[in-house]
Amino acid sequence: MSRRKGGRSQSRFDHPREEELVPAAEAAALLGVKRATLYTYVSRGLVRCVPERGTKENRYVRSDLERLKARHDARAGHAAVASGALRWGEPVIDSSVSRVGAEGLAYRGHSAVALAVEGRGFEDVAELLWTGTLPAEPTRWPAPEPSLPPSELARLLPRGTPPVAALSALVPLLGARDALRFAAPPESEKARARRLLRQLAAWVCVAQAPGRVARALKEDTVAASLAFAWGTQVKRAPELLDRALVLCADHELNVSTFTARVTASSGADLYACVSAAMAALSGPRHGGSSDRVEALLAEVARPERAAAVVYERLRRGESVPGFGHPLYPDGDPRTPPLVEAARSVRPEAPGVRVAQAVVEVMREAGHPPPSVDFGLVMLAEALGLPPGAAATLFGVGRAAGWVAHVLEQREQGHLLRPRARYVEPPASVSGGRPPP
Question: Where are the annotated segments for Disordered (predicted)?
Answer without folding.
Answer: 414-436
